[in-house]
Specification:
The chain is built from 12 helices and no strands.
Amino acid sequence: MAEATLDPLYRLLAWLSPAYPIGAFSYSHGIETAVEQGFVKDRPTLVTWLASVLLHGTGAVDGALFAAAWRAATDHDWQAFDAIAERAAAWRGSAEMALESRQQGGSFLSITRVAWPHPALDAAHRRLAGEIGLPVAVALAAAAHDIALARALAGYLHAFVANLISAAVRSVPLGQSDGQIALASLEGAVRRAAAAAEAVTSLDEVGACTPLLDWCSMRHETQYTRLFRS
């Protein structure tokens, strides 16, 4: 098949699939502690928790980083891109949050360079020594392979929240139907988070306001029984 006939959507769906080998299934992003502490105990509390994460926490921060990284990569402004990557590495509320993003980002870049090679991916890997946050890595791949920002960003945030729902299904526990109803309920929050991220004109304007999420993440570091890495 000629390169020009390949559908960018195919690549995006592959990259954001739970089967993509970046280890996403092993992270709960604080959900495990939120369940233990009783903050998340059923579908309504899960939806409320994740809507807050999307709109006021990691979703807002990572969405803005994704959009900025995609634009810098599209413009071939690699100095700006590397500065965004550096900010993404520092913009974490706990050690586990940093590990979660860094490990998945590095794994994403490594496997994507092999399966969907592009010179921009190789160059970023060399410049950053393979150390890259997940939103920045996915944004780079999307820009390099001509996937529109709106589509890539919405897909990224959907995959992010779907992975956390999967963690909650295993932790609460919830049934598979409840998990899918929760995902359907969060469609509006994903859309609003994506629209807000696209509208950001300066990363200096972006911040998070989810202290309970950070508390859960830090508490998870010493939690006695753990299924997840975060």
